[in-house]
Specification:
By secondary structure, this protein is mainly alpha-helical. It contains 3 helices and 2 strands; from the N terminus they run βαβαα.
């Protein structure tokens, strides 16, 4: 018996290697049509072309499964985690992992 509702945080924060991408694809494929998943990501869909093992075909197949029956909740604004640190002047400099 698998989890009732898997929650996978920060997908796409770091690029997936081939093995990681294949494992994630298998999890998504097994859940497809059988149960829900919650995914969070900092990277917009428009910048995920090669996020899965730098393979555009695998990324397209994964996106197809993930987006077909999904609800996208887009949140914008300042980082909640850094809010208090900014108030006292110790917020770190954030560098993007993926270039614009």
């Amino acid at each position: 018996m698998g989890p009732r509702l898997p929650v996978i945080d920060e997908t796409g924060c770091l690029p997936f290697g081939r093995e990681d991408a294949n494992l994630f694809f298998n999890v998504a494929a097994k859940r497809y049509g059988r149960g829900s998943m919650i995914l969070t990501a900092d990277l917009p869909f428009s910048r995920r072309a090669g996020a899965f093992a730098n393979d555009t075909a695998l990324t397209a197949a994964m996106s197809d499964r993930l987006l077909r029956h999904c609800h996208v909740v887009r949140i914008s604004g300042e980082s909640y985690r850094l809010k208090d640190k900014k108030k006292i002047g110790i917020a770190p400099v954030i560098k993007e992992i993926y270039p614009p």
